[in-house]
Design a protein that fits this description.
14 strands, TIM Barrel, alpha/beta
Length: about 280
């Protein structure tokens, strides 16, 4: 069966987006010599052995009320992918978060996910188009800029899902994120990010919620052994509860990562992504 040129719905909009995306000057992260793959060495700043980012979603009220002061105690800067409603409820305090050097990211206006979640049925990604997603992302950017005075360059995929549409109409909106943002972060991924190879528009992130420091330390050690970038993603910041990054664990991470003897560069997604972009050139 011959495939028509226009068979893929939405291809014209996607092509328009792709036309404005510059081609990367970095290529061939790995070189093959017969059956051997040689991994290029990547140098982190100041002789660090790895990078680590703490990220938190939705502008949960506990982040402002109990969590961020703990990060500030250690001088650790994190990335917060905010939901507009919660952000506005604590707008004055979020302005202080920005002043203290934390990274504020876009997490959409409505937090659309698959309609298989009952709470997302009226904002299901299966019913979205690229144009609708582009409009929502732009609206979130404008709102954040209006309230906090900054234009986000970081993005986190709600529920870690990167598609819109259904069946033959399914499309990835990763190219749209690549066009609009410096980086896009996933959720519940299995591997840390290889700084030489990773796609900044679909960065892997491991769950921080509910984890003990011992569990997180194993992730850190794995990333460190390869010189990788580990991104941890959480929601609430409290002593306990559902979708909660435990304060004891966050405290232990900050203490461990800020000890120079452990060779960890802990910083925001924006700062580390910017370093990768510059180094890859």
């Amino acid at each position: 069966m011959a495939i028509k040129k226009d068979w893929y719905p939405g291809i014209h909009l996607l092509a328009a987006v792709l036309a404005f995306i510059p081609c990367s000057g970095f290529s061939q992260a790995y070189s093959r010599n017969d059956s051997t793959i040689t991994k290029p060495e990547f140098i982190w700043p100041e002789g660090k052995a790895m990078a680590l980012s703490l990220t938190f979603d939705d502008a949960r009220l506990s982040q402002i009320d109990t969590g961020i002061s703990l990060l500030d105690k250690y001088g650790v800067k994190a990335t917060f992918y905010v939901s507009p409603g919660n952000m506005i409820e604590r707008a004055d305090k979020w302005k202080i978060v920005v002043q203290n050097g934390h990274d504020i990211g876009n997490h959409t206006v409505n937090h659309p996910c698959t309609g298989n979640f009952p709470w997302s049925r009226n904002k299901a990604l299966e019913e979205y188009t690229l144009q609708k997603m582009m409009t929502e992302l732009d609206s979130a950017n404008k709102l954040i800029e209006e309230v906090l005075g900054i234009r986000p360059v970081s993005f986190a995929y709600p529920c870690g899902q990167t598609f819109i549409g259904r069946g033959m109409n399914v499309q990835s909106y990763i190219p749209l994120i690549a066009f609009m943002f410096e980086s896009g972060r996933g959720w519940l991924n299995e591997a840390p990010n290889d700084p030489v190879f990773c796609d900044l528009s679909q960065l892997n992130a491991a769950e921080l919620d509910g984890k003990s420091f011992g569990e997180v330390l194993r992730l850190i050690e794995t990333a460190k052994s390869n010189g990788y970038w580990l991104i941890l993603a959480g929601h609430e910041m409290n002593e306990g509860g559902i979708q909660t990054s435990l304060l004891n664990t966050v405290n232990a991470i900050c203490k461990y990562a800020t000890d120079p003897a452990n060779g960890i560069w802990i910083d925001t997604v924006h700062n580390i992504a910017s370093y990768l972009k510059q180094t890859r050139k």
